[in-house]
Amino acid sequence: MRPARTTIRTVILAAACALALSSCGGTVREPKEYGDVTTDGTGYYGNLMYGCTGVEPTDGKYVDVKLESVDYCNCIFDGLKETVPFSDAKAFDQKQATEKAGEIVVPTNIKAVQEKCDTSK
């Protein structure tokens, strides 16, 4: 059985990826790549950070976060961008969108990023 903290982080990661790929409401085109770090909450990074921290940036900073720390979320973004093909992240998002929270299976390459970020705290 996984520790509760890991399960919660898996759900948050899945939600963050879903937000990043869905562009928070569908009025913005679906990202086709990870892109760069932004300070205005746009692109894959902005959507992932919103899903991961639970807040939008204020003056380019994520303050009063409600979910995961900014450092953890940045680690997730960097790790995904460096080691996981965007097509894998997109496929994970599409699959987890139909799964119940307790049934989400995180692909090995994405789980490796999560575990690395868990230990870097």
The total count of helices amounts to 5
Number of domains: 1
Distance between the termini: 22 Å
Structural class: mainly alpha
Largest sheet: none
The residue fraction in helices comes out at: 55-70%
Report the radius of gyration as a whole number of Å: 13 Å
How much of the residues is beta strand, in percent? Answer: under 5%
Apparent shape? globular
Number of strands: 0
What series of H and E elements makes up the topology? HHHHH
Poorly predicted regions are none
Average pLDDT works out at: 82
Please characterize this protein's 3D structure:
There is one protein chain. With 121 residues, this protein is an all-alpha fold. It has one domain (4-119). Helices cover 55% and strands 0% of the residues. It contains 5 helices and no strands. Helix 1 (4-22) packs antiparallel against helix 2, helix 2 packs across helix 3 and helix 3 runs antiparallel to helix 5. The longest helix has 19 residues, at 4-22. The protein is globular and about 35 Å long. The protein starts with a helix and ends with a helix. The model has no long low-confidence stretch (mean pLDDT 82).
Could you provide a short overview of the structure?
The chain has 121 residues and is mostly helical.
